[in-house]
From TrEMBL:
Transferase among keywords: yes
InterPro entries, per database record: AcetylCoA_hyd_C, AcetylCoA_hyd_C_sf, ActCoA_hydro, ActCoA_hydro_N, NagB/RpiA_transferase-like
Name the UniProt record assigns to this protein: Acetyl-CoA hydrolase/transferase C-terminal domain-containing protein
Domain Acetyl-CoA hydrolase/transferase C-terminal per the UniProt entry, residue ranges: 276-431
UniProt family annotation: Belongs to the acetyl-CoA hydrolase/transferase family.
């Protein structure tokens, strides 16, 4: 371990990229931790290198090295969770998904993944004590640094100083420092909120009690939940979540989130990464009420359950009549990732008074054809994100049901009640034909 602050050497991005050799494994962390000037410098070396492998999560567009190598002849990108850009690259065969439960990733690095040749992370410039703050992205950064042969930081004054647990790397652990371009951080635009989102959100918001501790995913529906809670009169809500969103920050600013009744980190809003607008990043900067934590702390169920009334709110893309939720693929085409959905479903269930909600619109349109999200059988190749045994509440614009403790016929009836009316009769017929409903039992009759 180095002791002198001067032990880390300042280096240009080009010289840092020159350290990369063919066959190396690199890691860029996740989300806002991924470097930019190093990425461009490495892209400039594309013809000199072969079989360079990079792990990241949610690589924001454009990634210079991927654009410089459109046929993946030199660089191979592996992602823990896809965003829109990575999904397009996956469709082109140059980005590959790594299955996971997100809260387990630090353990994967420490137990199962070979040492990393080079890790490069975007950080805030060192403070007076020699600490480079990770800003709003903690995730598995500490685990990567422990496992890396060479540690490089790319500094940026755009990275806010975010309070947290192990949310920094000391200069004594760093080999090289690149001065970044200080460009503004990537901002994730909030998706529009639809009438269906609002209808679903109203059902969920009605369930949220004073003192509830929230985990909310990304999308229009979670944003709608936050909007409703802002004016609902709910008190002393807490946050223990994977992703911090603009909607949650608005609840905090409105005084609805205080964390006063949390058992774990009372008075603090715990998260592992924040992704949203500049307003969020400004709200996080130097704010002692915010706690950016390693992902195993935020996502492992035995931590989630320590807060009473843990409420987990996540979306899915398709469910079958028995309650399996497929939230990350369209057949064999991967579209997002498991993330923390399953772990939060389990953590909320184990929490005293906790509830988990899996939400979706009843229908969607693909290539001009409307289809039901509730089906007899999942699309061939679809990945089950949350098993039927774990699903608690399911919500569409047509209602909300709790599947816990229900038999197969009861589940089928409940799921059909959530489907769009145009599809219910056909779903009942399919259920009868496949013996999921007894012949004498029809939808609308007691099980």
């Amino acid at each position: 371990m180095r002791t002198a602050y001067q032990s880390a050497k300042k280096i240009s991005a080009a010289d840092a990229a020159a350290l990369v050799k063919s066959g190396h494994w690199l890691d860029f962390g996740a989300c806002l931790s991924q470097p930019d000037v190093f990425d461009k410098a490495l892209a400039a070396r594309v013809r000199e290198l072969a079989e360079v492998n990079i792990r990241c999560s949610q690589g924001f567009e454009p990634r210079a090295m991927l654009e410089a190598d459109p046929h993946a002849e030199h660089f191979h990108w592996y992602s823990w969770h896809y965003n829109t850009y990575e999904r397009k690259k996956s469709d082109a065969g140059i980005c590959h998904y790594i299955p996971l439960n997100l809260g387990e990733v630090p353990d994967y690095y420490r137990r199962f993944i070979d040492p990393i040749d080079i890790v490069v992370l975007k950080v805030r410039p060192a403070d007076a004590d020699g600490n480079f703050n990770f800003g709003p992205t903690n995730t598995w950064n500490r685990a990567i640094i422990e496992r890396a042969r060479t540690v490089i930081v790319e500094t940026s004054t755009a990275v806010p100083h975010v309070c947290g647990i192990d949310n920094a790397v000391h200069i004594s652990e760093v080999d090289y420092i690149i001065e970044g371009d200080n460009a503004p951080l990537f901002e994730l635009k909030a998706p529009p909120v639809s009438d269906i989102d609002r209808a679903i959100a109203r059902r969920i918001a009605a369930e949220i009690e004073d003192g509830a501790c929230l985990q909310i995913g990304i999308g229009g529906m979670p944003n709608a939940v936050c909007s409703l809670l802002k004016d609902s009169g709910a008190k002393d809500l807490g946050i223990h979540t994977e992703m911090l969103t603009d909607g949650l920050i608005e609840l905090y600013k409105a005084g609805v989130v205080t964390g006063a009744r949390k058992k774990l980190d009372p008075g603090k809003s715990a998260f592992t990464f924040g992704l949203g607008s500049r307003l969020m990043y400004d709200a996080l900067d130097g704010n002692p009420d915010m706690l950016c934590c390693p992902v195993d702390y935020t996502n492992l169920p035995h931590y989630i359950m320590q807060n009473d009334k843990a409420f987990s709110i996540n979306s899915t893309t398709q469910m079958d009549l028995q309650g399996q939720a497929a939230s990350e693929s369209d057949g064999h085409r991967h579209i997002s990732g498991t993330g923390g959905q399953l772990q939060y479903v389990r953590g909320a269930y184990a929490s005293k008074g906790g509830k988990s909600f899996i939400c979706m619109s009843s229908v969607f349109e693909k290539k001009g054809v409307r289809k039901s999200r509730i089906v007899l059988d999942l699309t061939r190749g679809n990945i089950v994100t949350t098993p039927r045994s774990d699903v608690m509440y399911v919500v569409t614009e047509y209602g909300m049901v709790n599947l816990k403790g229900k038999s197969i016929p009861e589940r089928v009836r409940a799921m059909i009640s959530l489907a769009h009316p145009d599809y219910r009769e056909d779903l009942e017929r399919q259920a009868l034909e496949n013996r999921l409903l007894p012949r004498a039992l029809h939808v609308g009759q007691p099980a």
